[in-house]
Protein 1
Amino acid sequence: MSVQPERERVSEAGCWCCGGTFPEAELVRLGNHPEVGVCLRCARWLRRRAVQRFDERHPSPAARVRGAVQGVRAAVIRKGWHRRGALGAVLRWIDRHLP
C-alpha cells in the first residue's frame, strides 16, 4: 500500500467585510485582532470611508477637494458610467489613482 503525499494547500480565509474567500496573501489583518481579515478591495473601501470621516471632523482645503472627488465618484456610479465600454475603462482607471 502506498500513501499519496497530501497536496500543499493554499490557506484561504474569509473577508469579514464582503464574506468572500481569499488567499492569505490577499487579506489585511488587524493589529490587535489577527482573527479579523479584510480583503484588499474592502480595505481600500474602508480607507476611503476613514478618510471621509476624518475630513468631516477636520475641515481643510484638501478635505474639500477630496469631498468634491467623492461627489463626482458617487454621481458616476449612480449614472452607471463606470460600466460603459471605453468610457467606463477610463473612469475606472482614474478611480484607481484618486484618493
Note: The chain has a mean pLDDT of 87.
Protein 2
Amino acid sequence: MRISDLAAEAGVTVKAVRYYESQGLLKPRREANGYRTYEPDDVVVVREVKALLSLGLTAEQTYPFIECLRAGNERADVCPASLTAYRTRIAEVDQRISELTDLRARLTDLLSDAENWRMKQL
C-alpha cells in the first residue's frame, strides 16, 4: 500500500506517516521507482502510535508498544516493556499534577492577598 493509502486508512496525514518513519516506528519497503510501500499491519501500528501520542507519550516511548505488536501480540500493551512505559507516563502525569496543584495554591494565595490589599485601600 502507498503512503497516502496508509495515512487515509489509519486516520493520519501523510506528514505524520513520514514522521513516524523518521522516528523508526515504520519501516516501509522501497520499490524500484523509490516509492514507499507499506504492509496492512502498518495501519495498526500507525493507529497505535497516534493513540499513544494523544496520551502524551513521546515517539520514543511508543517503541515498546510497537515491538509488542510486531512480536505477534493482538494488543500493544500486554508486554512487560509496554506496562513499564504506562507506569512511566503515569508517574510523569502525577508529577505534573503535583506541580500544577502547587502552582494553583500559590496563585490562589496571591489572588487572596491582592484582594485583601485592595479592600483595605477602599
Note: The chain has one domain: 3-121.
Protein 3
Amino acid sequence: MEPRTGAVNQLLLSACITELAALRFTPAGLPAIDLRLEHESMHVEAGQGRQVKAALKAVAFASVAERLAQLPLGSHWRFQGFLANPRNGKHPVLHITEFQQD
C-alpha cells in the first residue's frame, strides 16, 4: 500500500504523563523517550453526556525527547503528533512532535 497524497494523521491530546522512561538513544544516535499518557474529559455523544478516559503509549525523538525528559510525572500537557503502529505491536503509539503547557 502506497502512502496517500493529502492524507491526514494528526492528533492533539490533553493528557497527564503517568510513566516516563529514561532518555535513551537510537542506533542512529538520536535521543528518544517512551512515555504513557492518560486523558480524561466529558463529551456529548448522541445527546448524552459521556465521561471519556483513554491511556496510550507515546514516544518522542530528538529535542522533543530531551525536553520531555525534564518534565515531572503527573503534569498535564497538550501533545501534538501522529499515530503509528510499532513494528512489533498491534496498538498505535503517539509520536509526539510538539507539546505545550495545558
Note: The first strand starts at residue 11 and ends at 20.
Protein 4
Amino acid sequence: MEVGAKTVEKYWSVYMLRCADGSLYTGVTTDPARRVAEHNGDRAGKGARYTRVRRPVQLVWQEFGHDRSSALKREYALKKLRKADKEQLIKTYMSSIGDM
C-alpha cells in the first residue's frame, strides 16, 4: 500500500480457529477480527468453504508480525502438524495470554 511517496508494509497474522465440530482451521490475514467475522458468515460468501459448514468458529490462536511470505510459510508448516501438536500450541498460547 502506498501512502504519499512511502510504501507502508502490511503486517500479516497467522491464525487458528476452532470450528463447531471441534476441528481446527488455519489461515493468514492482515485483519484477524474481520476474517473471523467472515468465517462466521457476517459477509456472505467471504468465509472459507471449510468453515462455512462448521459454524460458529472461534479464534483460538494467532501469531502477529509476519510479512505475506513468512505468514504463508508458517501457515503451511502449521497445517502439516498433527492435531495434538496444534492443541498443545493453542494451550500454550491461551496460558500466555491469561498471564497478561
Note: The chain is about 40% helix and 25% strand.
